[in-house]
Specification:
Bound molecules: erythose-4-phosphate
CATH class: Alpha Beta
Radius of gyration: 19 Å
Distance between the termini: 35 Å
Largest sheet: 8 strands, parallel, barrel
Strand content: 15-25%
CATH topology: TIM Barrel
Low-confidence stretches: none
Strand order of the largest sheet: 1-2-3-4-5-6-7-8
CATH superfamily: Aldolase class I
């Protein structure tokens, strides 16, 4: 399973990339706004920090305007994945960009039928938003289960399921059990995955015992 980080904060991305466990980055207009920086600058910097796919979202809503913005975004670096919303114009844009060999992430997916449409449009990634479904009392992970069942029924569909709007490690665990290809995590959730109190406790005990030996290794 690939782990992307969902942020436009380049300090966070740099620190997490140093772990060697970061496979990509997703951004959206809200995250770019939060960064307070120009989209072209921040995406270029992220693409230098992480060699994997970096999603940069169009702000236009009509096909011609989306194509124009996509042309600018994909010029930033070869690892840009152009992010388009799951609308008729977004899917048309997805189809056209995919045919040109551009990576596309179809975002704001809230149903399995929408995911199927994104796959038929040739999306590299489709992003179902689990947390936002949970927020309105629907089971976000049930959507991932439905999409995985459908995609597994049609092995010709090459679109990767990118679990988005992740709120906590249980979302990650369930997504992995379901075989989702990617999860994009807020930095805090990604950091949570590393930790377990018994790891901390065990390490403290080992170090205390080691100190008693008076030995050094290097
Ligand atoms: C995914 O690409 C989106 O940027 C993101 O996961 C949305 O998450 P949110 O619902 O926490 O805003």
């Amino acid at each position: 399973m690939k782990f992307f980080v969902d942020t436009a904060d380049t300090a966070e991305i740099g620190a997490l990339a140093a772990s060697g466990l970061l496979d990509g980055v997703t951004t959206n207009p809200s995250l770019i706004a939060k960064s307070g920086r120009r989209i072209l600058d921040v995406i270029a910097e992220i693409c230098r920090l992480v060699p994997g796919p970096v999603s940069a979202e169009v702000a236009a809503t009509e096909f011609d305007a989306m194509m124009k913005e996509a042309a600018v975004l994909r010029e930033i670096a070869p690892n840009v994945a152009v992010k388009v919303p799951l609308t008729p114009d977004g899917l048309r844009t997805c189809k056209a960009l995919s045919a040109q060999g551009t990576m596309v992430n179809v975002t704001l997916c809230f149903s399995a039928n929408q995911a199927l449409l994104a796959a038929k449009a040739g999306a590299t990634f489709v992003s179902p938003f689990v947390g936002r479904l949970d927020d309105i009392g629907q089971d976000g992970m049930e959507l991932i289960a439905d999409i995985m069942t459908i995609f597994n029924n049609y092995p010709d569909l090459k679109t990767e399921v990118l679990v988005a709007s992740v709120r906590h490690p249980i979302h990650v665990l369930t997504a992995a059990k379901l075989g989702a290809h990617v999860a994009t995590l807020p930095p805090a959730v990604l950091r949570q995955l590393f930790h377990h109190p018994l790891t901390d406790k065990g390490l403290a005990a080992f170090l205390a015992d080691w100190a008693k030996t008076g030995q050094t290794i290097a």
